[in-house]
Design goal:
Elements: H1 2-25, H2 36-58, H3 77-99, H4 110-131, H5 144-147, H6 156-166, H7 168-185, H8 191-211, H9 217-231, H10 235-243, H11 260-287, H12 289-292, E1 300-306, E2 320-326, E3 329-334, E4 339-347, E5 352-356, E6 366-372, E7 375-382, E8 385-394, H13 400-403
Antiparallel strand pairs: 1-2, 1-8, 2-3, 3-4, 4-5, 5-6, 6-7, 7-8
Helix pairs in contact: 1-3, 1-4, 2-3, 4-7, 4-9, 4-11, 7-8, 8-9
């Protein structure tokens, strides 16, 4: 009787877990299918958001719960409430389905089906992570703005991003391992190796997110959880083989099809997920370099040497101390430490730079740079204000961090 009760509870738990996996992952992979996300994914997401608002209003201590997908954070209050919503919703679904388990034999297959679903989700996500590690992507190289920033002013996440972004070799290593883990998960023959590699790769991601306060803790933790669940059916065989050193064999059942149509449908879906989606990620990332990169011949950190007579009327702490041109970005740092950021629209002939995104709300500010020996003249026009400055330029090659390079032989460690 106890064994039967335990078996019943176990089946119910697996059914609940299958529901939770589904509600966390869906509407994946609809955003990779033309029109499917607009027709199905968006309505489903809005329904889930409405349920989440309802649950959030019932919880004590939560006020002004709001969803803003443009924040770039996956650890908002809304996301944490979503964990409760998904848990309750999957519990409700499990109760309803479990009540009719005798009439619906397919329910017994729900958990294995969700493991396959999780396998594709983790695999595609890791491939997407890996692709972003190459070229200008998730971790850009050292920028002039970041190198002029005080070390103590970095956020923990900013520190991690600059650490990873420094080395193209290390980024490539991370990208290759993530793509390998994701790719291996997409095939049943290599799922065990893929799950083992995925656990190692995602564990590192989770530790980085928790150690450096990166707001992707929820997603990365679930990627690790799903990797463990994918490997779980093979734990006994792996333990027997790797720990006890006894003969063991991983089970593998070739897929069988009842009809040629089902076989071709499966192969078509498989090709789409395994080939088309990853290739489209790669192509999209390569094409994105056209707007991620920007050739700016005047790039540099300009330290103001003299402000001439045009800034006499300004208070001393409002005067410019430094101007940094970094790709498409321009930063003006004042003596007081206040900073204003602008976007560079165009770099014209003779050093005329057109700006937008003025923090002061001025129209079409411009900056005219001219080289005068070892110094530079900066003629700025910001609305009604016009002034000319003298500055000294510092380029990326002038920073020791970038000029140090790699050395096979180091007689003494250089750790400063």
């Amino acid at each position: 009787m106890n064994t039967e009760k335990t078996s019943t509870l176990s089946r119910f738990f697996l059914l609940w877990l299958a529901g939770y996996v589904f509600f966390f992952i869906f509407p994946f992979p609809l955003r990779y299918i033309p029109f499917a996300y607009e027709w199905i994914g968006i309505p489903f997401s809005r329904l889930m958001e409405s349920l989440n608002y309802f649950v959030g209003r019932q919880l004590p201590g939560i006020e002004n719960l709001a969803y803003d997908g443009g924040r770039g954070s996956g650890d908002t209050s809304f996301d944490y409430v979503f964990l409760i919503t998904r848990t309750l919703l999957s519990l409700l679904l499990a109760v309803v389905l479990f009540a009719f388990r005798k009439k619906a034999g397919w329910i017994q297959k729900a958990y294995p089906a969700m493991i396959v679903y999780a396998r594709y989700f983790v695999g595609i996500t890791l491939i997407e992570y890996g692709v972003a590690k190459f070229l200008i992507g998730q971790f850009p190289g050292p920028s002039l703005i970041s190198m002029e920033q005080s070390f103590g002013d970095f956020s923990p996440m900013g520190l991690a991003w600059r650490f990873f972004g420094y080395s193209d070799l290390y980024k490539a290593f991370m990208g290759i391992t993530e793509i390998m883990a994701g790719g291996l998960l997409l095939f049943r023959r290599t799922v065990v190796v893929g799950a083992l590699l995925s656990m190692a790769v995602v564990t590192n991601i989770v530790l980085v997110n928790f150690s450096f306060d990166v707001p992707v803790k929820i997603l990365s933790s679930h990627l690790l959880l799903f990797s463990v669940l994918i490997l779980a059916p093979y734990i006994k065989q792996l333990f027997r083989l790797l720990v006890l050193h006894r003969p063991g064999q991983l089970s593998y059942q070739p897929r069988t099809f009842l009809s040629p149509k089902k076989k071709w449908a499966y192969l078509l879906v498989k090709f789409y997920m395994v080939v088309f989606v990853p290739v489209s990620m790669l192509v999209g990332h390569v094409l994105s370099q056209s707007y991620r990169s920007f050739d700016n011949p005047w790039e540099g950190a300009y330290e103001i040497l003299s402000d001439g007579d045009d800034m006499v009327d300004l208070k001393s702490d409002a005067k410019w101390a430094r101007v940094i041109l970094d790709g498409k970005r321009l930063l003006i740092e004042r003596v007081s430490g206040d900073k204003s950021y602008y976007s560079i629209v165009e770099v014209g002939e003779n050093g005329v730079i057109s700006l937008s995104g003025s923090a002061e709300g001025k129209d079409t500010p411009t900056l005219h740079l001219r080289e005068e020996g070892e110094e530079y003249q900066l003629a700025a026009t910001f609305g009604d204000e016009q002034f000319t400055l003298k500055a000294k330029r510092k380029m990326k090659s002038d920073y020791f961090l970038l000029s140090r390079g790699f050395h096979w032989i180091n007689e003494y460690p250089l750790n400063r």
